[in-house]
Amino acid sequence: MKIRSTLMALALTIAPGLAVLGSAGDALAAQDTAQAAAVTKISHATATSMFRQVGITWSSSGNCSDRNNPTCTSFEQLNLATAQGAQTLKRASGCALNITGGTETGHASGTYSHWNGYKLDYGKNTCVTNYIKNSFTYIGLRGDGAPQYQSGSGNIYADEGNHWDVLYYNCGGC
Q1: What secondary structure does DSSP assign to 85-97, as a single string?
Q2: Concatenated DSSP letters for 141-155?
Q3: H/E element holding 9?
Q4: Which pLDDT score, from 0 to 100, does residue 35 have?
């Protein structure tokens, strides 16, 4: 059993994203799934309180916050790290931030999606755009053609034309 534990530790140290033989491979394959599931979810009220603390605004075309209505902007079931990431962006950039998309239905699906609490949309303004383009690394076009920029902490900012679609893997150094 000690050899298996040692091999597992070695596999995680040398190749954290690769599968290896035996039970260590099974554990590594489950690592991404477990990491995605092991997040702290917050309520809409908690998120809005956090956003108010730093001066972040939000809006919706439907003037509502119902998670099941695509014209609303909801923060129900938002990941805590995502809300903290928004606070980090606001503090670091000093820019006006207006969230136009949260966890409501109507966005693309997937593990790291709006619905699962990993993404926020921000209305574009010159300050935010300049901050992202000057502070983060251009990493190429997303599958849909959106230019992407990656922060030092690994979060990804995609320019979708009329807004920024931001994928928060973490709080961005909070």
Answers
A1: HHHHHHHHH----
A2: E-TTS-EEEE-TTS-
A3: helix 2-14
A4: 54
Question: CA quadruple 88, 92, 97, 99: dihedral positive or negative?
Answer: negative
Nearest alpha carbon to residue 78 among 61, 56, 94: 56
Question: Under a CB-based contact definition with an 8 Å cutoff, are residues 79 and 165 in contact?
Answer: no
Identify the three-state secondary structure at position 158: strand
Please give the pLDDT value at position 24. 42
Distance of CA 37 to the CA centre of its chain: 14
With b meaning 16 or more CB within 10 Å and e meaning fewer, what string describes 88-108? bbbeeeebebbbbbbbbeebe
C-alpha distances (whole Å) from 20 to each of 17, 28, 35 are 10, 8, 18
77-121 residue pLDDT tens: 999 999 999 999 999 999 999 999 999 999 999 999 999 999 999
Whose CA is closest to 27, among 37, 40, 17? 17
* Residue 45 burial (C-beta neighbours within 10 Å; 0-12, 13-18, 19+): exposed
Q: Which residue has the tokens 């699962």?
A: 116
Percentage of the chain with pLDDT > 90?
77
